Every structure is written in structure tokens, then in C-alpha cells.
Amino acid sequence: MNAETLRGVMExxxxxxxxxxxxxxxxxxxxxxxxxxxxxxxxxxLEEPVGRAGQVGIHLIRTTDHxxxxxxxxxxxxxxxxxxxx
Length: 86
Prior knowledge:
Blueprint: H1 3-20, H2 24-31, E1 36-41, E2 51-53, E3 56-62, E4 69-71, E5 79-84
Parallel strand pairs: 1-5
Antiparallel strand pairs: 2-3, 3-4, 3-5
């Protein structure tokens, strides 16, 4: 995942999460086809986010294995995990 895509994801979450909540996932999927988006409770994520958009931690995830895993290297990322503080 390149820096421009990550920046766009963070901007989209910042713009829409307060009003749309998890509906923001639909917007993200439309704007960034081919990128996997998952939202979970922040309590379920131990790793530090690569960025924040309000109450949402932005994590990169590797999607090439059978299990999704959080990664810090953007070249390995095929998706974004949104860790939501509720």
C-alpha cells in the first residue's frame, strides 16, 4: 500500500466516521477498490496504529495469508484495520 492511499484512507475516515460510523467502510471500499477494510474494537488490538483519525486507530494488515495480521511495513499491506474506540 502506498503512502497516497494511506493518506486518503485517513482523510476519508476523518471526514466520515463521526456521522457514518461503520458505514464509512462502504465509502472506503468504493474509493479504494481492491483494499480490504475491517473494523474492530480498539480493545481487541494490541499493536500501535500507523495513524489516527479521531477515535479510530489506523492499522495496516497483511492479507496474503489465511489469517489477517497487523504489519508495520506498508509494502506488505493489502488492507486496513480500523480499531474503533467506543
